[in-house]
Amino acid sequence: MKRNPCVFASGKAGVFVIGLMVGCAAPRLVQIPQSIGPAPIVLSSLNTGRLVVYTEEIGSGSGDDMINHEPYTVLDSSGRLLKKIDNRWGDEVVSLQAGRYFVRAGASGGGVIAIEVQIVAGRTTEVHLDGKWTPETSSTAATLVFGPDGSPVGYQCTPITCPY
Q1: CA 36, CA 28: separation in Å to the nearest integer?
Q2: Which whole-number Å values give the CA distances from 161 to 120, 123, 142, 155, in the listed order?
Q3: Which residue has the higher pLDDT, 52 or 137?
């Protein structure tokens, strides 16, 4: 007796479908040979610190939540302009290579305040030009820097805090 080619073909297709189902039922483990670690350190970030300059409010926009702050500039140690910081919210964090810089910002009465800052790798240098900062009670006047109005604007750079 001769086999019906349609029955033979459907039998092979059935075996193929069962094979696919068995193959899909058990997930296959794929081993990745490399281990994963932390993100690589970018060499330029090893020598980077942060600067935050709290500047004065210069008015508000259309709503009560639209208070703007004085922008400021960062200059290198030779006085060349490096960055102009919009500082809209008054506390923008700026990353800089470790070293000495100058900050210039508008002051009340139309003047300009210029102050030297030291950026230390891995640390944040804060300059408080908004007149709202209250230093820690453990700080003595000898460790503070004062602005022209007598308010404290930051901590003095000492050989212990600024090794450069």
Answers
A1: 21
A2: 8, 10, 14, 9
A3: 52
The span from the CA of 87 to the CA of 56, in Å, is 10
Ordered structural domains, the chain, with CATH: 43-155 (2.60.40.1120)
Instruction: Indicate if the alpha-carbon torsion angle 49, 50, 51, 54 is positive or negative.
Output: negative
- Chain centroid to CA 147: 28
SS3 state of residue 159: coil
pLDDT in the model for residue 49: 92
Token pair in block for residue 107:
């002051």
Strand partners, 60: 67
Please check the confidence at residue 131 and state whether its pLDDT lies above 80: yes
Residue 119 has pLDDT above 70, yes or no: yes
Report the candidate in 50, 41, 43 with the shortest Cα–Cα distance to residue 121.
50
Cut 0.90: pTM above it: no
Tell me the DSSP string of 96-139. EESEEEEEEEE-GGG-EEEEEEEE-TT-EEEEE-SS-----TT-
- The span from the CA of 115 to the CA of 15, in Å, is 82
**Amino acid 163: pLDDT:** 65
